[in-house]
Specification:
By secondary structure, the protein is mainly α. It is built from 3 helices and no strands.
């Protein structure tokens, strides 16, 4: 355990930042899964509504990944890799039908 005031404060700040980072990472995973689920839904029923659903969830996912990179929650290359993988799947899905 920390002995001086500044070390105690740093521990509190580190814990606060850890929780914020955890929230970002969790939300990125959730939105990624939701985007892939919508891609599968579009494969089964290629309607205009499902296509719009895929596009909106893709935009939200990309936006959150960019914010996480901006706040140094994710490394910029890691964020780029995530976006690239998602975009490849979505592109293949939308062009297949």
């Amino acid at each position: 355990m920390a002995n001086n005031k500044s070390a105690k404060k740093r521990i509190q700040i580190a814990e606060r930042n850890r929780l914020i980072n955890k929230t970002y990472k969790s939300t990125v995973r959730t939105l990624t899964k939701r985007t892939l689920e919508n891609c599968n839904k579009y494969k089964k029923d290629p309607s205009e509504d499902n296509k719009n659903l895929v596009k909106t969830t893709l935009n939200k996912t990309f936006s959150l990944i960019d914010k996480a990179v901006k706040k140094n929650v994710l490394h910029k290359n890691n964020g780029a890799n995530k976006k690239s993988k998602i975009n490849t799947i979505v592109k293949n899905t939308l062009t297949a039908n």
